[in-house]
Amino acid sequence: MSTTNHITTKWLGNMAFESNNPSGNNLTIDIAKEDGGDGQGYRPKALMLAGLAGCSGLDVASLMKKMKLDVDEFTIETIANLTDEHPKYYDAVTIEYHFHGSNLDEKKLQRAVDLSVEKYCGVMEMFRRFATLDIKTIFHHA
Description:
By secondary structure, the chain is of the alpha+beta class. Helix content is about 30%, strand content about 30%.
């Protein structure tokens, strides 16, 4: 049986929209002032990158918890190349997983990243359909 996600996106006037989600949280989508918006919300393409990083990050955080890994700080840098022609889309995306700490288990952390990238993250799989992905894991020992 398949699952359906349903969100409602409502125009707020000018170039702003509000989208809800099944959890009851709302977010505002808008564009920059120089493009005719008010700059009061998230831009759609940036939201796609946040969705990608968030999806994979949740996988990795869950695995860090299960493996009882000691990590002081974990950040994901997502750097995407936008095509020149309309419709503009991301054709190449670099995803950097940065782990900071004094007791990093590099092997297990790399395994957590690999499991997310190769098996669990559905958003990663969607991106794979239209972009070349470059995955990097970087360890910062305190």
